[in-house]
Amino acid sequence: MSSTPKSQDPFDQFDDEEDEFVTDYHPAAKPAEPDPFAPSAFATDTYDLDEPFAAPYSEDAALVRDPFADEDELEPSPVKAQALSATPAQAAPSFSNVSFASQAAAVAADTAVNHSTFVSDEDIGIISIPRIGIHFFPDSEATLQACDTASLDRRMTRAQCLVRRGGIFEAIDAYKHEPTPSLVIVESAARGRDLLDQLGQLAEVCDAATKVIVIGAHNDISLYRELMRQGVSEYMVAPLGPLALIKTIASLFNDPETPFVGRAVAFVGARGGAGSSSVAHNFAYNLSEQMQANTVIVDYDLPFGTAGLDFNQDPPHGIADALNEPDRLDAVLLDRMLTKCTERLSLFSSPAALDQDYTAGNEAYEEVSRKVRAAAPFIIMDLPHTWTPWVKHNLITADDVIIVATPDLASLRNAKNIIDLLKHARPNDSAPRLVLNQTETPGRPEIPVKDFTAALGIEPICLIPFDAKLFGTAANNGQMVAEVQPNGKVNDAINTLTATVTGRTPVAAAKKGGSSFLSSLFKK
Questions:
Q1: Domains of the chain, with CATH numbers?
Q2: pLDDT tens digits, residue range 93-107?
């Protein structure tokens, strides 16, 4: 066991520099009544906080790690390795109160320390939580303080944190009437089948993509393994410290082997003037405000982009700077380049200027697009009406493609070409979706919706009626349709589009009960 430097020992403040027993200390002599918080337990700096169940007074004592520890272990402990490698017959979930604390008592019952309470700042390194929504539902006073402290930590500045006292039952009641965030952290004192029943109730009101961390009071191997099988992202044992909580969150979203990737929704117009950008911006606004999802708009139309105008923003930096030096773009630099429009909506704007030539190569666009997808759960790509290799690449690699068309012949032809290309290039992905914009335009002949959709082979998600006054007022004021006319047909159509694409329901709408199978809802 490596010794911890005295300057890094969190308990140095309790030490007496002139303790005489330090020089008289003998590893084989265990004190009669050891006190883990007494100065003598740490005076020699041989006690390693990363080994909570190790016996600090015996060199030959076996080391047993806490299976619920959230530290990155070089190799699993013997107990955890045995539990995770056991066959189903050997590891039937019995919920028989198998406590690791009792197994460790034979080694160091009087000196065992819950390591999650004492995770140092150096252990978690320089991490940053992405732009996600995190809701904490603590039940005990100690966990409430840990959640409050964690939510205010510098590493959580980009996340939208909300702390509510009441435990898992408060979460169940809250999500009956509002959408769930990217991560939900709940505390429950239940164990075994009772805890699984509570999580089943939570699953019925949760979105499918929500990650769940459970804070419990029991070190039960059967419970731990059963929760992992059901799809719970992590199980932590109280009491816990704020740094341990932050580290666990970071492990879910900052794992180099499984990096966090937001869902990319690409908008493209079937022809120039179809209104793709306006629909994309209103979609993103409703997604962030009505669905309460952290969202980033990326305006790829460098010389003529309108995202800055639509949101009344004039940022000094944007996507053009990133394209000039894509290798330098990291999470910190990206955070500086993004412009905050609302609490949950950020903008990666275009310069919309003609004083420079935009000559970035396809590799630069692909690199920037890849890195931007780690910024938030939803990335809205506002693609220009042009055809280049990087536009094609973004359409093929996006999670969802929205084609905005008008009911005329040019849109019909171009939309058909885009749909055929994407169906061939991504046969195993979701089919592109169609939005018919500017319908019911006075005095303009239109292709009937029935004929339009029959030629394309797909039905439109929504029909957005032509309303020159509404869109003109919103554009001139730098507002969205939901701000100008929240109860109109246009906003209803955009809400339908948002709900259909994301699978979320607005805050005002009641949530429908879903499947009770945890494995289909609590994704790791």
A1: 121-258 (3.40.50.2300), 263-502 (3.40.50.300)
A2: 333 333 333 333 333
Cα Dmax for the chain: 99
Around Cβ 154, how many Cβ atoms within 10 Å?
7
- DSSP secondary structure string for all residues of 427-443: TTSPPPEEEEEEES-TT
Dist. CA 168–CA 190, nearest whole Å: 10
Kindly list the distances between the CA atom of residue 304 and the CA atoms of 308, 310, 324, 421, 495, in Å, as whole numbers in the listed order. 10, 12, 18, 26, 27
Structure-token pair, residue 255:
């794992």
DSSP element (H, E) containing 476 = helix 468-477
Give how far Cα 238 sits from Cα of 113, 119, 363, 392, 488, Å: 12, 14, 47, 50, 49
Among residues 303, 309, 299, 278, which one has the least CA distance to residue 372?
Answer: 299
Strand partners, 378: 263, 295
The DSSP-derived string for 378-441 is EEEEE--S---HHHHHHHHHSSEEEEEE-SSHHHHHHHHHHHHHHHHH-TTSPPPEEEEEEES-
CB-count exposure of residue 16 (10 Å: 0-12, 13-18, 19+):
exposed
Structure tokens at 360: 């970035």
Pairwise CA distance, residues 383 & 392, whole Å: 10
137-178 pLDDT, tens digit per residue, is 999 999 999 999 999 988 888 888 999 999 999 999 988 888
Across 501-505, average pLDDT = 79
As to burial, measured by CB atoms within 10 angstroms (0-12 exposed, 13-18 middle, 19+ buried), residue 354 is exposed
Select from 209, 217, 256, 204 the least CA-distant residue to 233: 209
H or E element in which residue 136 lies = strand 133-137
Q: Which two tokens stand for residue 397?
A: 């690699």
Please, which pLDDT band fits residue 503 given cuts at 50, 70 and 90?
Answer: confident
Q: Distance (Å, rounded) from C-alpha 284 to C-alpha 367?
A: 23
List CB contacts of 511: < 8 A, sequence separation 6 or more.
175, 176, 177, 178, 179, 205, 505
State the Cα angle at 452 between 446 and 458, rounded to 5°.
Answer: 150
- pLDDT tens digits, 201-241: 998 888 877 889 999 988 888 888 888 888 888 999 988 98
514 with 521: CB under 8 angstroms? Answer: yes
Task: Give strand pairing partners of 434.
Answer: 403, 460
Average pLDDT over residues 368-385: 92
Q: How far apart are CA 342 and CA 265, in angstroms?
A: 19
346 phi, psi to nearest 5 deg: -125, 160
